[in-house]
Design a protein that fits this description.
Helices cover 12% and strands 43% of the residues. Strand 6 and strand 7 form a beta hairpin.
Length: 533
């Protein structure tokens, strides 16, 4: 085909692609080369990074080699909170969070066998190492690689009064592949197959303050304000239901901090499988596909709940009255709430399976275009259920809202599976130099009515630039810089993972009735060095 015809075919391929959809946190920190090309590398797998993106690409490595890389990344997430006209939570109107903004965000890294370190940094720096082995004349190439398959890190502990602390003072989700035995097999001059078994250490940490701006809680607080004197005591109340028995600290408010919670879990050994195929019938054309298997990752770890005086004293006062214990028994309330409750927990949190297909077009020697489409099953995250080794007294209070089992905490997510497009462009001004450009519009797997500050991931756009330089010795270096940004605007009662004020939306809507607007920004810089040995 003539060069100008190939260029026309490339343009048509782009014009006919599906509308851009998106991902959640996959492929954001996996490969220096892939990031430079909008993660559109399935039909042109990048060296040892083929282990993840398409293990069939390993068959193109015809020598022993080592790959060293590192990346630095920072995440910034902002949010502001405002109450619209007519705001009321059970007769309460003046929420102290109204008109505030979230504070600075920092990053951390979960260190396997150690845990979360105490330091907080403006970004993280992660190294990785991969190796490939090929015997001359053999159709097989073997490899292993270490890389970050999934990561998000948000730390808001710098400001103790950050309003966003009620939905994640610290959120850490990471999946670190530390070993990935892999093989690529060259079936013919044009067709290759590959398989890899990534073995990962996964970590999940949520540390948050909690409050419950709920209509029913507001009604209780209004009753107390009308019945209980400012001194906090009422003799008649002792012979009633004990609404005033908790004193001033037991006066209920939907806007008070009620508790804090920390969950820290890991899955140290979690293998999956990647299967890939690569067809290269012409030097200027290739097709690739990879299936990355998911898993029902079983986490285990520890928890700690700290109850503030409000609910502790309210329950104490209720059970110190004549009819309060009877009312508490009917409502399923606990007889007491300890200040601290801790123990062990477990949870099954799916790692979604992922399918990606791609095309490579090089219509002329100086230009190459990559286009990929991917699909990840984030719909598996419909709800996350955490199982505790005992009844959590704070959760016993939630029986009022139809939550029967206080040994489990079910956090609704409602995520969806979508298609994601990626586009990569390479220019080759010389035989040794390649200039890279990437664009990835990522339509969020978090629907607009499910967004929150635990996962502030709206539709985003990822822009990347990079270069690769090949030395005469056969070694090469790659450098990449990327920027991703997305905005969200959630009017009051639009996301029942964050700001609904319906009667039963207690878990979990800490910004009930608020208009919440925010954004997320990710900056990334990566460097890799590949050499033969």
């Amino acid at each position: 085909m003539a060069p100008h015809c190939r260029l026309l075919a490339a343009a048509c391929a782009v014009a006919c692609t599906l509308p851009a959809h998106a991902a959640l946190v996959e492929n954001l920190t996996t490969s220096v080369t892939a990031m430079a090309l909008g993660n559109a590398v399935t039909a042109d797998p990048p060296g040892i990074d083929s282990v993840h993106f398409n293990p069939a690409g390993l068959a193109r490595i015809q020598y022993d080699m080592e790959s060293q890389s590192f990346f630095a990344a920072s995440i910034r997430s902002n949010a502001s909170f405002h109450t619209p006209p007519g705001f009321s939570i059970g007769g309460w109107y003046d929420d102290p969070l109204s008109g505030t903004k979230a504070g600075p965000v920092r990053q951390a890294m979960y260190v396997p066998t150690y845990g979360m370190p105490g330091w907080r940094l403006p970004g993280v720096l992660i190294p990785s190492l991969g190796m490939a082995f090929h015997k001359e004349g053999s159709p097989f190439t073997f490899a292993t690689n270490s890389y970050m398959a999934q990561a998000i890190s948000i730390d808001r502990t710098t400001d103790p009064n950050d309003p966003a602390r009620f939905q994640g003072r610290q959120v850490q989700l990471q999946r670190l592949v530390y070993l990935s035995p892999s093989v690529g097999y060259r079936f013919s001059d044009t067709l290759s197959f590959g398989a890899s078994i990534p073995i990962a250490h996964s970590a999940f940490v949520v540390d948050t303050h909690m409050r419950f701006p709920n209509e029913l809680l507001g009604v209780f607080g209004s009753l107390q304000k009308g019945w209980c004197p400012e001194s906090g005591g009422n003799v008649i109340d002792v012979f009633g239901f004990g609404l005033c028995g908790g004193g001033r600290e037991g006066m209920v408010s939907p806007f008070k901090k009620a508790a804090s919670m920390r969950l820290e879990m890991t899955a140290p050994f979690d293998p999956t499988i990647n299967l890939g195929v690569l067809w290269e019938p012409k030097p200027w054309f290739a097709l690739g596909a990879v299936y990355q298997g998911g898993s029902k990752t079983r986490y285990s770890g520890s928890y700690e709940f700290r109850a503030d005086p409000m609910l502790r004293n309210f329950v104490k006062g209720l059970n110190s009255s004549l009819f309060g214990p009877i009312a508490g028994a009917v409502l399923g309330l606990p007889t007491s709430i300890p200040e601290v409750q801790h123990g062990n927990l477990s949870a099954t949190i799916p790692f979604p399976s992922h399918l990606q297909v791609g095309i490579k077009l090089r219509p002329v020697r100086y230009v190459q275009l990559n286009v990929d489409a991917s699909y990840a099953r984030w719909s598996d995250w419909n709800a996350l259920t955490f199982e505790f080794d005992q009844s959590i007294r704070l959760l016993e209070v939630a029986r009022l809202y139809g939550i029967p089992d206080s040994t489990k905490l079910k956090i609704p997510r409602g995520y969806k599976s979508v298609v994601n497009m990626g586009y990569g462009l390479q220019l080759f001004p010389t035989q040794s130099l390649a200039l890279r450009f990437g664009y990835e519009p990522r339509k969020s797997s978090v629907p607009a009515d499910k967004i929150d500050l635990i996962a502030p991931l709206p539709d985003t756009k990822l822009y990347s630039v990079g270069l690769n330089y090949k030395f005469k010795s056969g070694s090469d270096i790659s450098v990449t810089a990327s920027y991703m940004k997305g905005d969200f605007n959630a009017p009051a009662n639009s996301s029942c993972n964050m700001n609904c004020d319906n009667f039963l939306n207690v878990i979990y809507n800490p910004f009930a009735g608020h208009d919440v607007a925010g954004d997320i920004k990710v900056h990334y810089v990566g460097f890799s060095y590949n050499h033969r040995f």
